[in-house]
């Protein structure tokens, strides 16, 4: 392989670089293997066209060196679904020049924050394969070393506390009213966090600042997901993962990874979502509280359900219920306040809806309606629209319209809610000549116009 295909990425030394250059990805046989998502074929082609060793390919794909050898010799031509997805993500991450494992330090975290805070000139995007690989690398990265000494500035704990308070207020506003209009405020606070980190020198203050920046960048990414701006969300999540790593807060990192999983299954990438959430579970196995585990298991369940894998979805859902039933803990992170009985019922219902089981889902949605936290208006509204959709598909038109009107009366500004309403209106198309359906369309028009313009 020539230097255009390896060792010329500008980030790694030529001796250690495992990035795969664009010439490899332009080959017709490689393009075809990518099109049909054949990881075994890609591994054989990488051995043929590059000088990556079997051991290096094992590190890239998460497979063992003996398995790479079997694939290269044609003895293994198919992988299981999870191995296949992990191998593809690893290979595709090298195509986009993801930073190698050792580059998870202070300077890389600062650069990631600068890129998303509006202060830096480079605002390059992060694609779907790359953000998934970021989660895998976050889970495997060594503990962050102390930042190098720097000139100090008067960044006090009180200043950090103010940043934390604003982040919490933004989170509560999003839960109550949806993400509409909140992104500029989050961006301004993220710029402030990045500037404070650039100035602060005391190690304890810097770690707390990194935790605040991770929480804020993760929230900003979540706001972008709720607004349907997935391209904007990915680099924010990447910056959040790096900051959480510098803060040494693996539970916060898992929370950020869970948002990446939501984005993945929202885009129909169910197995990817399940892998991301399972990775977060494994990374926090000795640190996560029961409620954190319950939340992550629901992400696994949602991912499998989106892919139509009923048994893994129901197993993950049962794991979530068992963890949730252990109850809250004094160690629960403050950002998880929304993990209520209503949320558990709503997530379980969403699993059954994805599996086409409307009657089971409707029972759970009824329970969710009665038990949602009063602060979580947006999620309650989405749950109510889902119950309207289930009722419509079951032929209960009057009840469906009543539920939908109730959800719209909550006046939540959210693109994700708008998508739910669009799905409901699609289910109601056979009844378009009914006056009550026309009335519902009129009621929904302001939300759809503002959220989807």
From TrEMBL:
A GO term, aspect molecular function: DNA binding
Protein name: Transcriptional regulator with XRE-family HTH domain
Pfam families to which the protein is assigned, alphabetical: HTH_3 (PF01381)
Domain HTH cro/C1-type: 43-98
CDD domains associated with the record: HTH_XRE (cd00093)
Gene3D superfamilies noted in UniProt: lambda repressor-like DNA-binding domains (1.10.260.40), Tetratricopeptide repeat domain (1.25.40.10)
InterPro entries from the UniProt entry: Cro/C1-type_HTH, Lambda_DNA-bd_dom_sf, TPR-like_helical_dom_sf
